[in-house]
Write a structure and sequence with these properties.
The protein has 80 residues and is an alpha+beta fold. It has a domain at 15-65. The protein is built from one helix and four strands; from the N terminus they run βββαβ. Strands 3-2-1-4 form a four-stranded mixed beta sheet. The protein is elongated and about 60 Å long. The relative contact order is 0.24.
Length: 80
């Protein structure tokens, strides 16, 4: 395959990888379920941490909180 027959490269999308984002999805049994993203808020991974560790994680990463989109909000008493 010659260089002239290669498909065009996709455009380069820049992101500020110093920006960190968190979107909380659920809190239950003392744990926080959330999405964490670096640079692009739409490209994230799901994490679960105890509340104290979550608070520390957010502080250390200086996160920007995105809209809360709960899966379901239940208290510890409602789920067993």
């Amino acid at each position: 395959m010659s260089v002239s027959s290669l498909p065009p490269s996709p455009p380069v999308v820049s992101a500020d990888i110093s920006r960190r984002f968190v979107r909380i999805t659920r809190e239950r049994h003392g744990f926080v379920e959330f999405y964490f993203a670096i640079g692009w808020p739409e490209l994230s991974l799901e994490l679960v941490l105890p509340r104290a560790a979550f608070d520390d994680f957010c502080r250390r990463n200086a996160v920007t909180f995105l809209d809360h989109t709960p899966k379901s909000h239940t208290t510890d008493e409602e789920e067993t």
